[in-house]
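Moderator note: this is an archived Q&A kept for reference. The question asked for a predicted structure of one protein chain; the sequence and the answer are reproduced below.
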Amino acid sequence: MKSTRIFSSILASLFILMILGGAVPVAETQPVAPSSDGVIKATLQVSIPPAQVRTWEQMRAAALKAPAAPVPSFQSIPFLPTMDDAAYKAHKDKAAQDGALEAPTTFENRSAAPLAQTLSTEIINFDGVDSVVAGNFTPPDTHGAVGLNHFVEITNSHLDVYEKAAPNTRIGSLPLIYFFRYPTSDFTPTYFYDPRVIYDQNENRWIMSALARLDPPTLEQRFFFAVSQTADPLGAYYIYQVVTDIFGRVWDFPQLGLDRDAVIFTANFFYLTTFIDARMFAVAKSLIYNGSPQTLTPYMFTGLVGTLSPPLVLDENPNTYLVAAQTNDNKVTIYTLANSAGDPPTLSTGATIPVAAYTIPANAPQPGTINTLDTSDCRFVNAGTQIGNSLFQVHTIKSGDFAKCRFYEFDTVNKQVIQTGTFGRSDTSFDFNAAIAANRRKDVFVTWSSTDVANNVNAEVRYSGRLHTDPVGVIASPGSLLSGSNTFYSANINNLAQRWGDYSAVSLDPSDSRGLTAWIVNERILTNATWGSRIGRISWPPYGNGLPAIYLLLLLD
């Protein structure tokens, strides 16, 4: 199979524009200067046309009317690092050849052993969508969220809805082109990528987003997002689009966050393949949750550090904190967003939080092949969890010869680390593609991907977590949601580093008022040329029952 470089023709078209004098002026590519009072001034406004209302029945009918088409050939969505491609490859090569990092600081913790016995008498989880059904895009960018009665999985170009109750029937399945179909005369997307979905537990709404691109690619690009009218994911939606190409850049790796008043969107911006900055805008829930009949023009903040991750805020905190981890650094950048539903909101200049030094991890080796799995860079790939003055996040770093997951609890007021630590399957495993969620008591849930050549383990879906009463800085490694595949992954025969991730998801179950239940979704290997996904539920026991243990509920496919 031959890999398709999706952005190649886009870049060629942009180069032509440069020759013809149509390029964005150089001055526009510079970061926006902050004002003297420590507040970043927004200088751009996004144009979001009035909402279009679409029901699941309309979406499904459009899909049924579409002519049958063959499953598309293997399509690889490239990763855009916030550095030059050659520099990124050099960092990856160096990580594979080098030994250990600099010695970690004293607040670095590590635990590969379980804190308590993993109770697995009912090993329960089920298969999600696979690459054949979803359109043969790689990586899948598995993402999902849990609601009152459903789990929604979103992957590159596909959306799937499952019942939470056994036997976890898939009751809805659509290509994203039919879900996000937006009636315009000048843009007809043919595939969607970088998808996200979250569930607003306060308002009982689903929010979904994805980038859209024409095929064959052109300069045109759109960012779509949708808000459900009810808690039913098979109900009606307000569909919105943002015309991103008017900024003259490639909008990439969008992320989706939420606070008490607004939905928050972030993305990386590129000119050709050159990273410009990270950007952010927020839209009041009161506007998009009610299907605004007028064009919305929220302010966009530019000149921010990439890759910028918004949080999911669990309380009524008037301040919302967004964080970014650079490729190789000993600090994290944090921004404070106030009056998020305002016109405009207030965004502080970036402050720094000192952390243990980190750098790009090596790619993960697989048993039986020279092909590795791409572990990405050190960015925060998902929304974190904000509760009180704490913000929980996780990313992948180089630790000795291995890739490991490192989690943090940041003090957002004093700009310091409350606790941090690395975790993984074993001392010889490569661990990456992590997601994290915390509840109001600061109990934590995580999922990640792991390979372990020394123990002949192919990529598996792992889970863990911690109670707030556990030793500081420690997340145990109790078990796998899905044990390693019998085969390695080698979908792209023209590239030794196989695309993987770029992210997974874990979300708190709104049906559990204690906050002790979460659902996860992550990528798995189906065959050595196709990916699958795995969905499961994790529950902590009630407080007072001893040390933490994780239960997996048997969910039959």
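Archived answer notes: The CA atoms of residues 156 and 414 lie 38 Å apart.
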